[in-house]
Amino acid sequence: MSRTAHTSRIPHPRSPRPWLRSEATAALRAARRAARGPGRERDLAVQSLKAALAAVLAWLLSSWLLTDTLALMAPWVALVLVQATVYRSMARGAQQLAAIALGTVLGTLTLALLGHPVAAMAAVLPLTILIGNWPRFGDQGIYSATAALFTVTAGGEASAAIAGERVLAALLGAGVAVAVNALLRPPTYLRDTCKAVWNVVCEASRQLETIADGLEEPLERDRALGWYHRAQRLPRLIDGVRSSVAWTRESVWFHPEKEKRGEARRLAPWYDETLHTLDDVAGNLSALTGILLEAADGDSAVPRPAAGVTEPYAAFLREAAAVLRAYGEWVTHPDTGKEREELDARADRVRETHDRLRGELPRWATGDPEAVAFFGSLLRHARALTERLSPDQAGDHQT
């Protein structure tokens, strides 16, 4: 084999330029969304600016009030404690202060006993790293080891006064972080919750419309399998709603604005009920696609529905998709009455269509027990899919 033939098989390293171009484009899009209006990108930008401001303020205060060389602990603590909610800043601040205080005291004692920074480091770091895993510290336990490391390597005298001043610097940084986070555009997450709910509603309604379009053609297993797999992804979107509801509830703890606290507390129970409704929608959609998948299996005893069945059922699913979108509009617009009226009208229409379909069940089933069970299941899950979307069932968030 020639040298040329051998070397031609060696793959050339891939250029990083496409990856860099893709990352730069994504960053530019995020910057444009942040500049365009409220959203997740703007929230992150504001939080970053607040963290930087807190660090600068903590450094100025610590330089003015404290003389120790480790006054840098104040801006360091302030930088990491501007969290996504005021409550989280306070809770993690308490954990971090406890970890820093413990690490500082242990580092000071070890350095005073051994007298040499390297020996003190070798002795104190394993202990503080182990202590940092204590669940009470949460994810702030590592600051016990870093505080001990700063203490034994900073030089100077190992004394109780210096240790106390360093803990005071950390306390100053934590106080500045909490104050900045609470007083400058304190975060709430009602907007994120509305967006997450709407994403689930749009995906579920699109799935219903896709199934309706597919039922106008002969039922095929590959298509039905695609419907089923897509329905299994819906619970992951609902987990996003669940997370957003939790963030909304947490964001009002210690929030300084009374109006926003009241709005979030009023709507949090409503969104809890919305979660139950979306869970029911996902469960019934999964069951519905499972029934259609079984019918599409050529080896199954379940009969394949004929066009006389699938066409009216497809029309019913389109109405179900419409009532689902109307429900989403009602949930995400709590202060208007037009959405409630639209949802009532859509719900009445889908009930009437369901009753007509149920009346034709004997003609579809033609006395076959398998057919009766199949068509009955289709109607039952389709009705259950829309029944919880009625305002009377879902609970009125206006109250």
From TrEMBL:
UniProt cross-references to InterPro entries, sorted A to Z:
ArAE_1
What topology does the record note for this protein and the membrane?
Multi-pass membrane protein
The primary location reported for this protein is membrane
Domain of life the protein comes from? Bacteria
Which positions make up the signal peptide? none
Keyword vocabulary terms for this entry: Cell membrane, Membrane, Transmembrane, Transmembrane helix
User: Where does the record place it?
Assistant: Cell membrane
Entry's transmembrane regions: 70-87, 99-129, 141-160, 167-184
Its recorded name reads FUSC family protein
